[in-house]
Amino acid sequence: MKIGIIGAGPRGILLLDSLKRHLPTEQTVQVEWFDAAPTGGNVWDPRQDLHLIMNSPAQLVTLFNDYRSDEVTGPTFYQWTQLAEATDFINQTGLPTELVDVCHHLQPNDYAPRALFGAYAQWVTAQIEAKLPANLTVTRYHTNVVTAIPTDQQTTLKTADHQHVVVDQVVLSTGNTPNQLSRDETSLRDYADQHQLTYVAPTLPTTADFDAIQPHEPILICGLGLSFFDYLARLTSSRGGQFVRQANGQLEYQPSGREPKIITSSRRGVPYYPKPINQEQMGEQPHFYFLNDETVTQNLVQGQLPGPKFIELLRAEIELRYYQLLLADRYPDVDLQAFTQGFVAAADRNQFLTDSPIQADERLNWEQVLNPVAGTKITTTAAYQQTLLQWMDQIMVDAALGSKHAPLTGALSLVIELRPFLQHLVVTGKFAPDDYVHSFLKQFNATSGFLTAGPPLIRYQQLAALMRAGIVTILGPQLRVVGAQGHFMAFSHFYPQEPVAVDAVLEARVPVTNLAHSDSPILQNLAEQGLVRPARYPLADGTTYTSGAIDVQFTTYQAIKADGQLNSTLFVWGLPLSGKEWMTTALPHPLAHDHNFGVADQIATTLFPTS
User: Fold this and answer.
1) What is the pTM of this model?
2) How far is CA 551 from its chain centroid?
3) What value, to the nearest 5°, has the Cα angle with vertex 429 and ends 428 and 431?
4) Per-residue pLDDT for 210 more than 90?
5) Cα 554 from chain centroid (whole Å)
6) So what's the pLDDT on residue 377?
7) 433, exposed or middle or buried, with CB in 10 Å at 0-12, 13-18, 19+?
8) 553: Cα separation from own chain's centroid
9) CB distance 273 to 403 below 8 Å
10) Rounded to an integer, what distance in angstroms lies between the CA atom of residue 513 and that of residue 253?
């Protein structure tokens, strides 16, 4: 059997490992592995800027499959960094020597440079390839596949450098791929071209071109999520600026003089919540009171979980964690176990809280959590900076308490702990189409990034320092950008009387895979041939919601063709399923029965049914 793996990022590596472990001794397999990016993928390129950091603590990431295991099957990322093998590998393979110094100073809960994880990914791959059985061989192609032409029971893969490789099975595990620009993005790009301005379309933070951005030049960054913090690092620390910790614990920014003047905002006008300092250890299995197999089963209606009930259970789970942490921090005399039992059993949780010792102003207010500046009277951009900094200071104090003590950010991080269970609900079809689209995608997924997928606390502290130094100014909510008088004009919809003129606009967003608008040659080719189709959800009102994800059969991860038939020779997983699966970008966590490992094994056992 010849198997073509398209993509050499983390999932491609996981799949190769699963193929090795599940391969029957009597079967011979040749793997043809394609990716123009370095092993590990573009996001984890070991030669990228060291100021670009991961978004998971070093000790909570691994590439060694421990699915359904009680022990790690190989060194986690952090464990590897502490081995002499890490230093040897970096030196022997000619990777940047600065990575060795990072290894020596890295702590378990640090957020390591992405480049260092890229080195780990390459080391893991080398370990796998060094232990391949005689009946499994691998050929690497440092190029991308652009077309896949099925002929009889085989597929011919054509690469960007005009090679033709025939395989029996294809596994698509591509990462972030570019999309065609939207109408608004096209308009901004065209205006930039006409007036010699700079427009950076959505792209990976590692590849965004900032060469045209001049010191002291006012620029606009659209978006306040993770890419925004990456762009900040590249435009400040990477240009020679330094953050210095003051006696009061606050960071102060010392500019290099090469920074632009950064204007930014987003729809909310508020940066994503920071992650609390991690206090979890790998393998910890938290207990969930509201979202577990038993409560879901109790609330099923015709075999499915109603969307509003899912939101109610999720909020109750977060609220309970919040109150548990709040009581431990501020109400040491309250019996936590009795409170927990009472909260879980209460028919009216609001009344239960009213009767509790918790002060009214310490109750969890969802409206305020979701919209921290809503209802705040602000008249100027300068006043908005003070309002934001005041809120950010409060949130940073909370996050600094750590994930097991911070009432708010610790409670929000519970969603990360719930990840395997929520992924299980999605792939086992526990939501009807209407509930999946309206409650899961449009309500939960739209806000979970803001609440739980934000940056490490250190990035928030750096942002506050940059705001106080006058390097960064955040405009109010509902950012608007138009071309006028030969410049870009940016302003908040709520405060249009203070427009800011800039000559550079940077879209701080990574392209989300969207089959209908993809600029990826291989995705376009598969769609044009009808070999894949977008995931569609028929809704109760007679309309159909079309996701940007590729449709697959979850029991095998084989693609579904445009005619509705199963494509038995094409498997798809990872980012191309964004909008059908949940959290397709996350790296595997050790000892967490991680979904990524389960899918890799699922694909391998489907390819080798006798294993």
Assistant:
1) 0.96
2) 21
3) 135
4) yes
5) 21
6) 76
7) middle
8) 23
9) no
10) 36
Q: How many C-beta neighbours within 10 Å does residue 30 have?
A: 15
Residue pair 112/35 in contact (Cβ under 8 Å)? The answer is: no
Q: Please state, as a whole number, how many other Cβ atoms lie within 10 Å of the Cβ of residue 609.
A: 7
Distance CA 37, CA 44 (A): 10
**Which residues, in sequence order, are CB contacts of 560 under 8 Å at separation 6+?**
532, 533, 551, 552, 553, 566, 567
HSE, side-chain direction, 13 A CA sphere, residue 438: 15
- H-helix or E-strand containing 458? helix 457-468
Handedness of CA 244, 246, 249, 254 (dihedral sign): negative
What's the one-letter identity of residue 404?
K
CA torsion sign, 423 to 425 to 428 to 434? negative
Read off the tokens for 257. Answer: 């003089």
* CA distances to 61, 73, 126, 277 from 589, in Å: 5, 13, 21, 17
Residue with the two structure tokens 């600094």: 400
Alpha helices in 206-348, H assignment, sequence order: 226-235, 293-298, 307-330, 336-345
Q: What is the mean pLDDT of residues 186-200?
A: 97
The contacts of residue 507 (CB under 8 Å, 6+ apart) are 185, 200, 201, 202, 203, 222, 223
5 strand-pairing partners: 33, 171
Which DSSP string do the residues of 96-164 spell out, in sequence order? -THHHHHHHH--TTS--BHHHHHHHHHHHHHHHHHT--TTEEEEEESS-EEEEEEETTEEEEEETT--E
What are the residues facing 559 on neighbouring strands? 552
* Lowest-confidence pick of 113-127, 370-384, 567-581: 370-384
pLDDT recorded at residue 610 = 78
Per-residue pLDDT at 476 exceeds 80: yes
Angle between helical axes of 10-22 and 114-130 (0-180°, round to 10): 20
pLDDT attached to residue 217 = 97
pLDDT per residue over 69-113, tens digit each? 999 999 999 999 999 999 999 999 999 999 999 999 999 999 999
Mean of all residue pLDDT scores within the chain: 96
Q: Minimum mean pLDDT among 99-103, 150-154, 198-202, 315-319: which range?
A: 150-154
CA distances from 119 to 98, 108, 596 (A): 12, 17, 20
Comparing CA positions, the residue from 67, 177, 40 lying closest to residue 588 is 67
* Paired tokens of 167: 């395989």
Residue type, 328: A
Closest CA to 249 of 405, 51, 393, 455: 393
Beta bridge partners of 483: 488
Give 264-314 pLDDT, tens digit per residue.
999 999 999 999 999 999 988 889 999 999 999 999 999 999 999 999 999
**Residue 611 scores a pLDDT above 90:** no
* SS3 at position 596: helix
